User: Fold these one by one.
Assistant:
Number 1:
Amino acid sequence: MTSLRYLGLASLLLLAGCRESAQASTTPQQQQQPPGYYYPPQQQPYPSQQPPGQQPPPGVQPQVPAQQRPLLAPLIGQAAQEQEVRMILSELINALPAQSRPLVANIPLNVDPTPEVNAFAGCDDKGNPYMAATAGILEAVDAISQTKATDELFGTQTYEAYCAQVLPQLVQSQQARAGLPAGIIPQQYGGDPRRWSRAREIFQDVIAFTFGHELAHHYLGHTGCAKGQALGGAPDLSRAGRLLSNIVPVFNQFQESASDSSGVYNVLDAGRARRPQYEWSEYGGVTLLDYFARLERAAGGGGPLSVLSPIALLKSHPNPLLRIPIVQQYARTWRSTHPG
């Protein structure tokens, strides 16, 4: 199965039990920030419309016009990103149905400093549930968010440039990183406050989908350890040999599909509850799954015919090309019963 490591990566990176996700460098390099990278003090309105060809993915509901939303402060650095993830996780839990919320209330989140791109639900050695993310997945989501925001606002192709440069490295070398390389964002756009604000919205959307799915593994009973018990702190993931190999469960495709469904509904419920703030939608899931599909193609797999591959059916997670329209259909179903 070693030769299939990266072929299955797109469906394994994100979710519980994905122990074969891409490795990043254990000797990270400091990203050189170009001039204009920092967020300037002035506040400017968003543009009135997106450039041609930069519209949201099909099926995603339009938001309140961007120029009517307040500008958000930038997320710079892992500490700020971790705080954002915890806020998102809290809002997702608060939006759960009454029967599910107590099962995951106060669930601890552990952010592992490893550059591996990963996020998962698991049980510690005492049988208590926890959520975990790595520094690597925060880097990846930050890069996706910054490039997508730049392209929406300025009609650039920075997401394509990022994927073309970074994804082949991820599948060719375990020392590659998923973070945004210097020079991808044009210098003249780097400090624009609208870009930073939109990037934070996209970051929230993608992380909400990520942890909406992971939470579902717990409250749907897939892990078997989320029972509403009193919880302590998060486990020490430096003991990865035992925690990740023996305690993080591996889920089957039916469980993954169920977590996709419940996770999308949770994201949409939480997004609706956030009004008039930026409303989370399936956009984050569609965006992340597109990234994973591109990663498969970079590894020599993927493409339209990959959905017919018998190997894809043996993966622990459904193929991302299959998951995108399914996630969109879940969102349409939710909106049919939640008008407005």
Note: The mean pLDDT is 78.
Number 2:
Amino acid sequence: MKKHLGVEYIYEQETPAPTASELPNLTVEDLEKMPSEWLEKLYDGVKALDDDTVLELIEQIPVAQSLLAEKLSNLVNDFQFKTIRQLIESISEKK
């Protein structure tokens, strides 16, 4: 195009999105920000290995907690249901 029309394109620099390995790990403190009723539903979904239910619950997370949603989504996409279950169980043990 440049040769025939004299047009030169300027491309925007791409900044890569953080990968799952660059995100901090999910913690009990992250999950404690959510209501206990929501955590119970999440626990049931994780225990049943029901990724559709878990992903629907993740969609309910407020925008202010988008990092939590991203951490959970990455775990679900990597089939790390046991990790999520163990964190929720440790919250229950604290109470």
Note: Helices lie at 2-5, 28-31, 36-47, 51-59, 66-77, 81-94.
